[in-house]
Each structure stands twice: as structure tokens, then as C-alpha cells.
Amino acid sequence: MKYNTTREHLTLPEYGRNIQDMVSYTLTIKDDDERNAAARSIVKLMEQMHPHVKQIEDFKHKLWDHLHIMADYNLNVDSPYPKPDRNIVERKPDKINYPANGIRFRHYGRVVEKLIEKACEYEAGDEKDALVKTIANLMKRFYLIWNRDSVNDDDIWQHIHLLSKGKLEKPEDFDLPDTGKILKANKPKKKTNHGKRKPKFKRNYR
């Protein structure tokens, strides 16, 4: 018995061992016409195995590319498409550069910091107070998602003070929503069967 661990590595496992064996055999065919016929037959079989590829634009080109990849780019056939370039196919994606500036309070996120920066640009007045209230409410909700224990409202205002570098303060006569109400609102609702008929069971009579 042969185990997969001792067999040839499958370059594209989605096509299976049989297709890989066919490709390997095709590489050994010396006659050009016979080798070309074998390659076309393998591509047709690959298409039958994965009919959904027809929904992909230029799917025939992709199947021929896969054939060359499974042959380790050594298959010499009259392909209707250029042979894929190994360096392009196997090239690793470029590293994504993440923003260097860190977020001071990660549980609030970058959006909250941006909102606070915007609020600092407003002149004193009702519009600025309304925006500060909205930000404070949002911060308390985010805090309770990160930590479901009770949060001290003074901590929220202290964080606003720090993030705004002392430019934003608590508006007069304003209190944040009760923690219990927020937790209740965030609690997922249980699914009910209201409006659905109960299945009827027929009684068997002899």
C-alpha cells in the first residue's frame, strides 16, 4: 500500500492524484502529436471536474496555466496560451505597511480618535457639545463591548480629555446612559417561533 506521504507532492491538490499522474506521464511522451493530444484531454478532464470554472472569465487560459504549473513548467506542448512565468506565479505578495502611529486606547479604535480630532476643530457652542456627547456615548458602548464589567463614566471623560489634549470637556448637565441599559441593548435577542405553525403529526390508524 502506498501512503500519500511517500508519493509525489500534489502541486494543485484540488485536481487530485489521478490528474497529477496523468500530467507526469504526459511529460514522458516523446511524440509531439501524442503529447499535445494528451494535454488537451487532461484540460478537458480538469474542466469536467470543476464545471464552476466556466463562470470565471477566460477560464480556458486558467486551466492551461494550471496544467503547466502541475508539470513544473516543463511541459512542451502547443498551448493556445503563453506558458505562465514561474517567477510571477510564485512571487510572494508585497508586505503591507501598517500605520506606524499607534492607537492609545485600542478598544475605542482609530475612528473615535478621528472624531475627537474633528471635534477639537469646532468652536464652542451647541454643535460642538452635541458632537462631544455623541463621541462619549460611542466610547462607552465600545468600552462595554471590550469589557462587559461596569465602567466608570469618569474614566470616559478622562480619556476624552487625554485624547483631545485637554481641548474637550464634559458638557454641562449631561450624563451618559446607564450601563445596565447599554448592556441590555447589546445583548443578542433570542429567536422565537412567533408566527410559525407547529408541525402537524398524523396519527396512524390500523
Q: Give the number of domains.
A: 2
Radius of gyration: 32 Å
Q: Uncertain runs with pLDDT below 50, 5 residues or more?
A: none
Structural class of the secondary elements? mainly alpha
> What is the averaged pLDDT score?
83
Topology as H/E string? HHHHHHHH
Spatial gap, N to C terminus: 56 Å
How many strands, what sense, and barrel or not for the largest sheet? none
Q: What is the subunit arrangement here?
A: single chain
What would the principal axes of the Cα set say about the shape? elongated
Q: What percent strand? A: under 5%
Strand element count: 0
How many DSSP H or I helices?
8
Residue share in helices? 40-55%
Overview features:
206 residues; mainly alpha; 2 domains; 8 helices; 47% helix
Task: Please describe what this structure looks like.
Helix content is 47%, strand content 0%. The chain has 2 domains: 4-89; 109-186, no CATH class. With 206 residues, the chain is mainly alpha-helical.
Helix/strand layout:
Layout: H1 16-26, H2 32-49, H3 59-70, H4 86-89, H5 109-120, H6 126-146, H7 153-163, H8 179-186
Short note summarizing the structure:
With 206 residues, the protein is mainly alpha-helical.
